[in-house]
From TrEMBL, chain A:
Protein family per UniProt: Belongs to the STXBP/unc-18/SEC1 family.
Transmembrane segment boundaries: 626-646
Sequence segments annotated as region (Disordered): 282-308, 552-573
Name the UniProt record assigns to this protein: ATP binding protein
Keywords assigned by UniProt, alphabetized: Membrane, Transmembrane, Transmembrane helix
Coiled-coil spans in chain: none
One Pfam family recorded for the sequence: Sec1
Ranges of compositional bias, category Low complexity: 282-303
SUPFAM superfamilies, per database record: Sec1/munc18-like (SM) proteins
InterPro entries per UniProt: Sec-1-like_dom1, Sec-1-like_dom3a, Sec1-like, Sec1-like_dom2, Sec1-like_sf, VPS33_dom3b
Species of origin: Collybia nuda
UniProt GO BP: vesicle-mediated transport
Compositional bias (Polar residues): 559-569
Amino acid sequence: MSAEPDHQSTSSVNEVNIDGNLLKEIARKGLVDALNAVNGGKTLVLDATLAGPLGLVTEVSLLKHHGVDKMFWLEAGALSSIAANIVYLCRPHIKYVKIIADQIKGHIRESRKHTYTLLLVPRVSTLVTQILEEEGVLGDITISAFNLQFIPLAEDVISLEYESAFKDIWVDGDETVIYDSAQALTTFQKLYGLFPRIVGKGDHALRLTTLLTRETPKTTNPSSDTLLSNSDKFDSLIVLDRRVDMITPLLTQLTYEGLIDELIGIKNSHVELPMSLLSPPAPAAVATSAPGPSTSPPTSTVPLKKDSTKKYHLTTATDPLFSELRDLNFSSVGKQLNRVAHRLDENYKTNLQSKTVAQLRDFVGKLGGLQTEHQSLRTHTGLSELLVPLTRTEHFNKSLEIQQNLLASYEVTGQIAAIEELIAQGADMEIVLRLLCLASITAGGIKGKTLENLKREILQTYGYNLLPLLLSLGSPPLAILLANPLPASTTPSLKYPFTTLRKSLRLLIDDNPEALDEVENDISFVYSGYAPISIRLVQCIAQKGGVLSNPAEREKVGTESTAANQKGAGSSLGGRVQAHPIVGWKGFDDVIATIPGETFDIIQQGAGEGQVLITSMLQPKEKSTITVVFFLGGCTYTEIAALRWVGRQNKGRKFLVLTTGIVNGTSIIDSIAGLGKSTSSKTVGI
Amino acid sequence: LSLDEASRILDPESKLTAVKAAHKFFSEDKDRSFETKMMDESVRLLTFQQQLEKDADGKVPFFGLSVNETLRTCLLNGLSKRADKLKSDFKVPDKRFWHIKLHALTTLGDFEALEAF
């Protein structure tokens, strides 16, 4: 990749870092307060899906410190506990509340006395009280909320870790997530001030923004004056809902981090790896390989797994090598690893040549650092070795080929036949469905007869219990698996204008040798030639030049005067010039309008400071600002990688990614299918 | 959808009823002819599987498997006639059937049958 913009990255990255820790602190304090509200020793009963997110903000010792002596999973069956207090911590799902009620009733039958507290994440819902009332245990339990909101995953990624967000919104029509997101964003604004401008795309994104802007005046009280003024750190908030770009998550991610997520699975930024990979023979290195206190989840006291695998926390805080690797296209990871290995080798060699005592002492001092680095090198080499055979499988390559062809709209019928072939070979259900949905979106639907045939094949191969899944994929809110011509009942607006977008947003980079350089210089590197629509949209707002042509090439053309910056829209910008201020969708109105979903652009003003701010916003700023991008319904690792890349292209603008969760195509399909979730989460979600 | 519940029920009889109920729901809606057909198939498969289990004296579980898995199990247990019947009943395309058969025979190590292919 091109040279790092050192001079400004240091300062603004630091800013973002502070953000993360502040949010973490809030979450931690919330938990501690909630726990302290219950006096004495207590048993904590935890919803398994929460353990991962919690592990990112607290550690076992902290919980112990606040009187937690035992921890259990929230599971059906009797609960045996000696402590007088039992604290339940869970998301407000009916399933969980029923279990809790059963357990309480069981205790009453055995005439044991406990005090119960139910902490709901992120807030109390009336539904829960209703169920408890029906079960007749409402009187025995104290209900309060533990407001777990944004959790920082990396220095520039913050997530709500809300796994089912996508399904909730687009399949079940449940908008709790939107409300919760608005709440979390309000908290965010309380900390840093109002976002001066909110730009977005998508019906649900608009709903979120309406909630957010309406919320603000209500919650404002005289003491929190941050809500009255605009933030000086952030120049805008960009809200995109997942529905706007369904293509991207359906594709196979090709960056290092994305590929790990696709093939092995990253959950709450932990990845499960074979034991042998993490604990090397050398005892000295074991200490460094063991996850630090903050990485071990709070529930490690409950041995649940046979220890063939181990959690590894993928974080750049303890693992500098990972930050070099995570956003690279997988094809260049090997090269990078090789380079680092060589550097390490050099370091060892020079150190061994040291003669004097001072030099030796120096060497010993460095040894620890070198070993850590060595260890992380070993881990990542092992990890990529693990990935390589998986990328060599027939199904993987076949599906990649189909994806690329579909994106180019090359012989669509041939691709569908290939998908059929995959079904016949018994490829994973998720792979097949991803490809099928992709085909449907890019080609604007699949021929009715063919589609029926394919559905039949799928049902026969993977079981008739998948019919609800197929139905929800095809029904209006989501509608990513459609017949062509469309049945009369569906509205024409559902059709996704992929072919026009591909042209206007320059989504596809040709795969010929001359273009290869270009691929390296565009966000499309994350998918080896395809640029994620979502990120192109962000570029439409924040880096207009990048959409139309290659910013890196423009660099040579020369630096335009800053006057061009002020006007912004569509003007040719040099690659690394000062980022132009956010001017909304200007210049791309027509394109954006063709994508289904509402488009909006709202300027938020703090009380009392009106005109001054707007003008100051349009001034090219010397200091760097941060643009917050919120993905409603989840984003993929590749999109994050692409955004980081865009951030590097501009001087003076960083991106901060907020999301409801990290997704990939498989996880989306799985969550809609609702298959194996309950069983797998127990083993995976630790 | 009652179908959602149907997939979770394990008891054979009640599962059949649930699927039948789903079938009825779908048949009431004109736009859902495809789903109706599928549910009909599903019912047929389940009954067929019950029959198979009876024939195998309950030693081999069939119930609730997908068509492919049923085919495979049939082949693995030397019920190739049954498999052929299943194939024609459910109009399984040749391509898919050969794939399944190939895999099943390889698992069995039945190389004579493989030769005869």
